[in-house]
């Protein structure tokens, strides 16, 4: 027997080792499964915490909770203001009628229903104070990028307060929570409408200034026409005046009359004007164009105004189209490239990401007689590029090749 043990001892040792390894492998597998389970739980907890953080972090809230969708459709800020008042009146009515909270349980304290009701009334007041304060803070701090987060914040506050009141079976009415959300949405949209109306007033003021300028230009053109008419009458009444001088004055008078007629027409016909198509490769890149409208007698003044100190380079003009129905033409061009607006939120920002060939094709269809220039002069931009290249060449040039200082 001993001889057999000695003979098969190596085999028995291997089997023992295998058995030990199997036990170890089983334990390791168990640890892996526990780790995976723990990781899944921790991952779920992390996800939940991230969602909660998004409610309070303005930088994360917009990306995490999505774009806000309007809940009301009023034509002006006053409509939203009146709606907020109606919502608050309904909230006050619910509080007065004691329907803002629900507590179906008939509580008794020391065998007394009256004492039980007193306890419920006191807890209801505390509940309303806590919830209303949280809602007021959310509504006061709501902005364009966190309104969805503030909505989650109100719902989360209601959930947490209801959880704290769970032992008393006291909870906030769903209708009251809904009214608070309505107040949040109406307040946010009211503020956004105020901003929009402010921008509209600024645009109207600009249009009024342009209107006054048109009238002033029309009056100046008429005075210029009168001046040439007087000069011509005087020249004709004087003896010995050169016929060439009279012809020159007649031509000047005709030009002044045409200018006067055009100025007066633009001042009186509200739909006439110039639709311009411009680009600014140095400021916005190659495939960005602005399609706008001006009613100025000298439309290039508007282009120069747009290329003032607010942008680093001036604009190139690709088309300046006069039309008796300028707003309709501008609207048609905007519609052509509606899906490629640079700013899809503010329709008064008339920049489009589209190449010039497509714009030229659209102009040929919508205004066949209009001229279109696809070249970009961009003088300052190209001069800037050349200067930068020269600087880079100088930096790369070996020191012994640099010119000696004079």
Number of strands: 6
Question: What proportion of the residues is helical, as a percent range?
Answer: 55-70%
Report the major sheet.
Answer: 4 strands, antiparallel
Morphology call = flat
Folded structure, characterized:
The protein is α+β, with helices and mostly antiparallel strands and about 400 residues long. It folds into 4 domains: about 1-55; about 75-195; about 215-270; about 275-390. About 65% of the residues lie in helices and about 5% in strands. The chain contains 12 helices and 6 strands. The strands form 2 sheets. Strands 5-3-4-6 form a 4-stranded antiparallel sheet, sandwiched between helices. A two-stranded antiparallel sheet has the order 1-2. It is flat. The model is unreliable at about 400-405 (pLDDT under 50).
Produce the secondary structure layout.
Elements: H1 2-56, H2 58-65, H3 77-96, E1 101-102, H4 113-141, H5 147-164, E2 171-172, H6 174-237, H7 243-268, E3 273-279, H8 281-284, E4 288-294, H9 300-306, E5 316-323, H10 326-336, E6 351-353, H11 356-366, H12 379-396
Helix pairs in contact: 1-2, 3-6, 4-5, 5-6, 6-7, 10-11
Could you list some keywords that capture this structure?
406 residues, alpha+beta, 4 domains, four-stranded antiparallel beta sheet, two-stranded antiparallel ribbon, 12 helices, 67% helix, 7% strand, flat
């Amino acid at each position: 027997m001993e001889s057999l043990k000695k003979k098969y001892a190596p085999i028995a040792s291997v089997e023992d080792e295998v058995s030990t390894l199997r036990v170890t492998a089983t334990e390791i597998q168990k640890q892996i499964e526990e780790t995976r389970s723990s990781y899944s739980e921790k991952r779920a907890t992390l996800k939940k915490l991230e969602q909660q953080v998004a409610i309070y972090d303005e930088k994360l809230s917009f990306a995490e909770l999505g774009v806000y969708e309007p809940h009301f459709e009023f034509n002006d800020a006053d409509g939203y203001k009146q709606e907020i008042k109606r919502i608050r009146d309904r909230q006050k009515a619910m509080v007065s009628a004691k329907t803002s909270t629900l507590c179906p349980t008939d509580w008794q304290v020391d065998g007394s229903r009256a004492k039980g009701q007193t306890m419920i009334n006191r807890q209801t007041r505390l509940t309303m104070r806590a919830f209303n304060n949280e809602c007021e803070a959310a509504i006061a701090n709501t902005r364009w990028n966190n309104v969805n987060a503030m909505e989650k914040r109100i719902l989360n506050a209601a959930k947490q307060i209801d959880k704290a009141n769970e032992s008393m079976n006291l909870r906030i009415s769903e209708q009251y929570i809904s009214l608070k959300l309505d107040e949040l949405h109406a307040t946010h949209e009211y503020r956004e409408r105020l901003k929009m109306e402010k921008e509209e007033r600024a645009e109207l003021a600009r249009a009024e200034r342009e209107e006054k300028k048109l009238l002033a230009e029309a009056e100046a053109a008429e005075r210029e026409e009168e001046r040439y008419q007087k000069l011509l009458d005087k020249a004709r009444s004087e003896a010995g005046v050169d016929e060439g001088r009279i012809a020159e004055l007649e031509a000047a008078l005709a030009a002044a009359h045409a200018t006067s007629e055009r100025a007066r027409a633009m001042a009186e016909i509200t739909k006439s004007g110039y639709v311009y198509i411009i680009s600014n490769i140095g400021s916005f890149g190659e495939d960005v164009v602005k399609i706008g409208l001006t009613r100025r007698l000298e439309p290039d003044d508007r282009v120069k105004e747009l290329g003032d100190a607010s942008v680093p380079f001036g604009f190139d003009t690709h088309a300046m189209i006069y039309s008796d129905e300028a707003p309709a033409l501008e609207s048609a061009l905007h519609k052509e490239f509606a899906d490629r607006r640079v700013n899809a939120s503010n329709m008064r920002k008339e920049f489009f990401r589209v190449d010039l060939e497509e714009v030229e094709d659209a102009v040929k269809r919508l205004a066949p007689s209009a001229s279109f220039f696809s070249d970009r002069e961009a003088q300052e931009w190209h001069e800037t590029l050349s200067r930068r290249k020269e600087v880079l060449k100088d930096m790369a040039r070996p020191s012994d090749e640099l010119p000696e200082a004079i």
